[in-house]
Amino acid sequence: MARSRRKFTMAEAAVPISAMIDIVFLLIIFFVTTAAMEKEIDDEKVVLANAPHGKPVTKKDPRAVTINVRPDGTTTMGMLPMTMPVISQQLLAAASKWGSDIPIIIRGDHNAQHYYIKQVMDAVTATKLYRVKFNAAIDDGGN
Amino acid sequence: MGRKKRKFEIKDAEVPISAMIDVVFLLLVYFIVSQKPIIEDALLPIDLPAPGAPAKQNQAVQLFKIDVAKLSRDSDNIYHVNNQPYYFNDLKALLKQRAETNPDTSIIINCDPNAKHKKLIRLLDVCSEYGLTKLNLVNDATVRFVKDN
Fold first, then answer.
1. How far apart are CA A91 and CA B43, in angstroms?
2. B7 contacts in A (CB within 8 Å)?
3. A122 near A130, Cβ under 8 Å?
4. Angle CA(B62)–CA(B63)–CA(B68) in degrees, nearest 5?
5. Which of B9, B43, B48 comes nearest A57 by C-beta?
6. Spatial contact of B120 and B109, defined as CB atoms under 8 Å apart
7. Among B142, B143, B135, which residue's Cα sits nearest to residue B65?
């Protein structure tokens, strides 16, 4: 009886990268979502007026409270529409936590009427906060 | 019967990177397409009375009152200084002159509630350009607010 031949076959050497791609995808999704959360305070419906000679924002105070004023007068904080009494409460809470020298940044739409900006400023002064700054865009073209 | 030689065939070891390159290109295209233009922000400070701050008395400060009013649809270029109408460029020249003679001039800005915010920002920007930092924003309570359509 003849002996059967043994076959030695070697598999092709390959690095399994499919698992690595899965992890890379997970990391990308994580970074994309967390980056979006950081930008959330900037209301996309607010188009800033141009101020080419304004002081550029180099370092943002982490205590800064940003209030957005849309063209129709809707006020938002952290993308949430809020009424003036609620904004006053939020400002009071911020002032009691960090002190009355916290910067208040008003992001008013370039077409918003000043009446709506004034309402926000009145709420700020009523809570004894005084460091008010208007947010604008450094851009020569446009409005 | 003679034994045959065993054959060991070893192929070249290769990392299959073509799929990975596809994915990387897709991600690159995604990030390039979804990238928003970076708009640099500016801040224009305004003076509000600090709580407990002593009232400024007997100071020889020069006051300069500018009215930001909404006169008509085409009035975005007109400001009033001490009740005199000024075109924006004339106002700029006036503020430049004032900044050169007395940079400590206190500017009182009286803003109409119906005026657009960009008109105020344009004025604050000019003040910032010429180093006029003592800005006080007041509101004309006598003007009735009419909501724009």
1. 20
2. 8
3. no
4. 150
5. B43
6. yes
7. B135
